[in-house]
Amino acid sequence: MDRLRKLVRPNIRTLDPYSSARDEFTGEASVFLDANENSFGSPLNKQLNRYPDPYQRDVKKKIAEIKNVSESRIFLGNGSDEAIDLLLRVFCRPGRDNVIICPPTYGMYSVSADINDVEIRNAPLDAGFDIVEDRISDCVDEDSKILFLCSPNNPTGNLLSRNKILDTVKSFPGIVVVDEAYVDFAEGESMLGDIGKFENLVVLQTFSKAWGLAGLRVGMAFGDDQVIELLNRVKPPYNINSLAQKEILSALGRVQAVKESINRILVARERLRASLAKLSATEEIFRSSANFLLVRLSKADEIYDFLVEKGVIVRNRSNILLCEGCLRITVGTPIENRKLLSALKEFDS
Ligand SMILES: *Cc1c(COP(=O)(O)O)cnc(C)c1O
Questions:
Q1: How far, in Å, from the CA of 302 to the mean position of ligand 1?
Q2: Which atom of ligand 1 is nearest to the CA of 217?
Q3: Are 293 and 329 in contact (CB under 8 A)?
Q4: For 144-180, how does the pLDDT look when each residue is reduced to its tens digit (9 = 90+)?
Q5: Who's near 303: CB < 8 A, 6+ residues apart?
Q6: Between the CA of residue 151 and those of 136, 186, 187, 293, what are the distances in Å?
Q7: Protein residue closest via CA to atom 7 of ligand 1
Q8: Reported confidence tier of residue 299, pLDDT bands at 50, 70, 90
Q9: From ligand 1's centre to the CA of 41, what distance in Å?
Q10: Exposure class string for 305-342: b at 16+ Cβ within 10 A, else e
């Protein structure tokens, strides 16, 4: 209890949050004249004249069911990127506190930290792309507030060792964020089941990858009730719009379709891996628990440019620590993968 309180920025601890019309009255009524909405409707005729539920209760109820977590431990953001920013704003005093990241990893942690004027400390992954606990503890001081881990990691594709994550959650004095954007593609277990055991553990998931809904911008943060309450205080009141809530709710009713789509992607990924392995430019294809492959190629930069000329865009990671000479390739449809491969073969010959 006390530990979390101490981690929170003092101005957030004492914040008197904005109270929206939908906060102050939540019951059933027939006449709503409290939010200055246009009671006559909209030109679109879809009931969009009303503000959305600020706490997305229907959506959370369904997520709670599917993921077996209580609603009070769920936060929804405008993408998980919003949750990353809000966590920084809740816990990190600008110009004073620091966060720790384990490169090579997702770029938003450091961009968000920079925007919030929060120092970034690097504890690089080892050659097998796993975390090194000593490197993390060497970075820690009394102003270390958040450690960002990403598992399966972007751009390397591997799961971090579960035991090392757990050890780190136990020893790290601040919040440990485990970003599981790709966990639906992974064979390993999510950290979601550990939320109740550690008040400093926050797990991020998203509808942008396996669920195929990147355009809706909805991400999830799971954590201790107190952390979720803090995120709710700081977020813009209506951060998930009505259309997004409605569509997410429908998608949550189609779990089976999502599972099938994941399986198709996994099959396509292994086919792509086999084809890439045959190219003479391919030096190494890293193991993946995600919907992309990290591939080390001779002449990665040239290949990247050649692919761009052919209208095929992959992610050039060749100048990133431990990813030297690597491209990150998202698994596409069979047709897309064929286009990619035929361009690569043309370069190869
Ligand atoms: C794609 C991705 C996200 C998703 O962010 P959204 O804002 O939810 O779209 C988060 N973390 C990682 C590591 C990602 O690769």
A1: 28
A2: 9
A3: yes
A4: 999 999 999 999 999 999 999 999 999 999 999 999 9
A5: 281, 297, 327, 344, 347
A6: 16, 9, 12, 15
A7: 79
A8: very high
A9: 35
A10: eebeeeebebebbbebebbebbbbbbbbeeeebebbbe
Alpha-carbon gap, residue 133 to 167, rounded angstroms: 8
Name residue 187's amino acid.
E
d(CA 110, CA 284): 28
DSSP single-letter state for residue 72: G
- For the chain, percent of residues with pLDDT exceeding 90: 92
Instruction: Kindly tell me if the per-residue pLDDT of 236 is higher than 80.
Output: yes
User: What tokens appear for 162 in the block?
Assistant: 């579960």
- Residue of 84, 85, 108 to mutate, ligand 1, most atoms within 8 A of C-beta: 108
DSSP 192: G
pLDDT in tens, 168-212: 999 999 999 999 999 999 998 899 999 999 999 999 999 999 999
Look at residue 18 and tell me whether its pLDDT is greater than 90.
no
Distance from residue 311's CA to the centre of ligand 1 (Å): 24
C-alpha 45 to ligand 1 mean position (Å) = 33
Does this model's pTM top 0.85? My answer is: yes
Residue type, 55: Y
Distance 104 CA to ligand 1 centre (A): 15
Ligand 1 atom 10, closest CA: 181
Torsion angle of alpha carbons 90, 162, 183, 196, nearest 10°?
-50
Ligand 1 site, CB within 6 A: 79-81, 106, 150, 154, 179, 181, 206, 208-209, 214, 219
Q: What is the mean pLDDT of the chain?
A: 96
Closest Cα to atom 11 of ligand 1: 181
